Amino acid sequence: MVPTAVTPEEVFADAPPIEELLAVSKPATGRGRIIWPYAIVVVGLHALSLLALIPWLFSWTGAVLMFIGLYFFGGLGITMCYHRLLAHRSFACPQWFERFLVYIGLCCMQDAPGRWVAAHRIHHCFSDKEPDPHSPVLNFFWGHVGWMLVDKHGLNKIANYERYARDLLRQPFYLNLERKGVPILVYLSHGLLFYLVGMAAGFAFEGTLIGGVQFGLSLLVWGVILRTVLVWHITWSVNSLSHLFGYRSYETGEESRNNWLVALITSGEGWHNNHHADPASASNQRKWWEFDLIYYNILVLKKLGLAWNIVEPKEKRQAARAESR
Ligand SMILES: [Zn+2]
Ligand SMILES: [Zn+2]
């Protein structure tokens, strides 16, 4: 079952003209207002991640879960789901699987899909120009994280970003996720689950309550909190580093770059100049060394019958169109 009738070409069709967006994005005071809930969560989780420095809160299981989580939550939840599936509709999948991936994405504390997708589509429409929400051309910190903490572009007004994610927000499932507190509730629930499962396992193996608490906390600190902060920086590096450092294969009219380091830590998102040249494509790989792990994951899903309508790179799409004429 195809979840929506939206095609990759149509995802930007509802975009309002730049004048309209600039009109709503002007900050009332000339400076952006700090969005305190975002600032508290970003600073708070960074502070809590320092708990990983306490030896008592370390376990090898927690460390392994952290590394697996970078791929599972960041790779599948953000890169595959929020970005390629929802923002660009680079492939289609069963509705139940799409929603499963959305919940994995929500465990990354990167907001509900509607707001994420709207910000990303605005970035593609106006890359490195006003009102691109997160261009690092202003400065590295702004492009990396600062843009999220300041209400400069009116992105936290649902009426505004609804224009850019209309295909999602017309579905009750996605609209419900935009309700205040829902994303954080999902995030906290999965953190609690990590802790409780860890505590039960620790108690079973150690036979003491303190052993259970220690093991549960190690999974929470390493498998959830530290992993969340690392996935944040990995995602944010696409917006910052991949618009500042790297080589360009295509003249795209903005500053996007192909950055091998970002590609390595993001499972393929760092080939960002390739992506800007062809945002609809499910693959960012154009040269043999530009390995795009997430694209191969999508091909595995296709083999399993869980993905279809995979959008090939522009060159292949054009060749197929010419052949069919
Ligand atoms: Zn970009
Ligand atoms: Zn994109």
**Share of helix among residues?**
55-70%
Largest sheet, in brief, is: 2 strands, antiparallel
Which range does the strand content fall in? Answer: under 5%
User: How many structural domains can be distinguished in the coordinates?
Assistant: 1
Mean pLDDT: 89
Number of continuous helical runs? 15
Major β-sheet strand ordering: 1-2
Q: Which ligands accompany this protein?
A: zinc ion
Number of strands: 2
Kindly report the oligomeric state of this protein: single chain
Structural class: mainly alpha
Shape, please?
Answer: globular
Rg calc: 20 Å
Distance between the termini: 29 Å
- Unreliable segments of 5+ consecutive residues: 1-5, 21-30
**Helix and strand succession?**
HEHHHHHEHHHHHHHHH
List keywords for this structure.
disordered N terminus, binds zinc ion, 325 residues, mainly alpha, two-stranded antiparallel sheet, 15 helices, globular
Report on this model:
By secondary structure, the protein is an all-alpha fold. It has one domain. Helices cover 58% and strands 1% of the residues. The protein is built from 15 helices and 2 strands. The protein has helices spanning 18-25, 36-49, 60-87, 95-106, 113-125, 140-149, 158-161, 166-169, 172-177, 182-206, 209-240, 260-265, 272-277, 293-303, 314-324, and strands at residues 33-34, 150-151. The protein has a two-stranded antiparallel sheet. Helix 10 (182-206) packs across helix 11 (209-240). It is globular and about 70 Å long. Bound molecules: zinc ion (2 copies). Residues 123, 127, 243, 256, 272, 276 line the site of one zinc ion.
